[in-house]
Design goal:
Chorismate synthase, AroC fold; about 30% helix; 12 helices; four-stranded antiparallel beta sheet; about 20% strand; about 400 residues; alpha+beta; five-stranded antiparallel beta sheet
Length: about 400
């Protein structure tokens, strides 16, 4: 089984990421991980912090000569802004009287939409700094780094992922638009909003510009697709083994994510049963489905077709014109603390969502097929697929075949 852990604060010296349970033989390079860390900074509407905050990656353990060893993989992501925060975030005791102004001033005006107030209540702090430092989305850099490793392992098994932006605020990709494949990642990363539909992307840019002009922020929806999955990941036998449930938890754990859909999700609830499910057809190579409304899962298990999950991100809570709050030091009405903020971080959320889906898929693959090395996992996977009777084998249909069957 796979375990991942992250540690570190937003303005601390570094983030720490550990992945335990990864088989040996996975190709891992600092350049590959660094590339994903750069992808996390993409997107029209990002703030200035993305320009000057560099992620200094160090692989500290678990990798030798470009391959995983089977031991825990340990990563360090250094914070180039740390010299500015050495006093504020010093792990040693400091004289608080010397920190009453500037960066060291107590943050007693909790920000609506953040963990500030409830975190202060829960952990018995009289200011928000100890809470917001760990609650910050900066922590997702560690997840993305681990996700790059997870994707490298999945790639060795023929499983590839891609993420894209479906909506920004009220602007949404048209229903029925073409889905990207893993071969489209470079084109997506080159788009301002990581949107696969050029016309919609232009409308999204205009929406971001309008929100920036109004001193406001935007949320949206991202979608992650996984190609090449075998049938049978996850299980129907108990609640905590269902693949769709695990994916939902993984995605909901991302900062600012407020909703998750598998396949057509809530849209399916507005359909009648006769138009809500994926009918089965005989095809060359096995059984195929005439549509993908379920998003590649049935009964808590992968079906062997394209996995499709969506995550909805709320508008960024650090609103430029500042929201109303209470100063807990005085009890008086005030405006919330405001630091540098993005107008829109939805494209970055897609990269983080891709990482979390990859991590959870690795966990499910290892649960099903095991293996202390990539070769062993691959052999176990191949044996499983070969043992499925021909009468039960599924054959993923091409997009053209799906359309033809739906029209029929």
């Amino acid at each position: 089984m796979l375990r991942v852990l992250t540690a570190g604060e937003s303005h601390g010296p570094e983030l720490i990421a550990v992945m335990e349970g990864l088989p040996s033989g996975v190709p891992i390079s600092a350049e590959g991980i660094q590339a994903d860390l750069q992808r996390r900074k993409l997107g029209y509407g990002r703030g200035s912090r993305m320009k000057f905050e560099q992620d200094e990656l160090t692989i500290s353990g678990g990798v030798r000569h470009g391959l995983s060893l089977g031991s825990p993989v340990a990563l360090r992501i250094g914070n180039t802004e740390w010299p500015k925060w050495t006093e504020v975030m010093n792990p040693a005791p400091v004289d608080l009287t010397d920190m009453s102004r500037g960066r060291g001033a107590a943050l007693t005006r909790p920000r609506p939409g953040h963990a500030d107030l409830v975190g202060m209540q829960k952990y018995d702090f009289d200011e928000a700094r100890p809470i917001l430092e760990r609650a910050s989305a900066r922590e997702t850099a560690a997840r993305v780094a681990l996700g790059a490793i997870a994707r490298a392992f999945l790639s060795e098994l023929g499983i590839r992922l891609v993420s894209h932006t479906l909506s920004i605020g009220p602007v949404h990709v048209p229903e029925g638009a073409a889905l990207p494949t893993p071969d489209d990642v470079d084109a997506l990363d080159a788009d301002p909003l990581r949107c696969f539909d050029a016309a919609t992307s232009a409308l999204m840019v205009a929406e971001v510009d309008a929100a920036r002009k109004d001193g406001d922020t935007l949320g949206g929806i991202v979608e992650v697709l996984a190609y090449g999955l075998p049938p049978g990941l996850g299980s129907h036998v108990h609640w905590d083994r269902r693949l769709d449930g695990r994916l939902a938890q993984a995605l909901m754990s991302i900062q600012a994510i407020k909703g998750v859909e598998v396949g057509d999700g809530f849209e399916t609830t507005r359909r009648r049963g006769s138009a809500a499910h994926d009918e089965l057809f005989e095809a060359d190579g096995g059984i195929t489905r005439g549509s993908d409304r379920a998003g590649g899962t049935e009964g808590g298990m992968s079906t062997g077709t394209v996995l499709r999950v969506r995550a909805g991100m709320k508008p960024i809570a650090t609103v430029p014109h500042a929201l109303r709050t209470i100063d807990v030091a005085t009890g008086e009405q005030a405006t919330a603390h405001h630091q540098r903020s993005d107008v829109c971080a939805v494209p970055a959320a897609g990269v983080v969502a891709e990482a979390m889906v990859a991590i959870e898929l690795v966990n499910s693959v290892l649960e099903k097929f095991g293996g202390d090395s990539v070769g062993e996992t691959r052999r176990n996977l191949q044996s499983y697929l070969e043992a499925i009777p021909e009468s039960l084998r599924t054959a993923p249909a091409s997009e053209a075949a799906l359309i033809a069957q739906e029209e029929a």
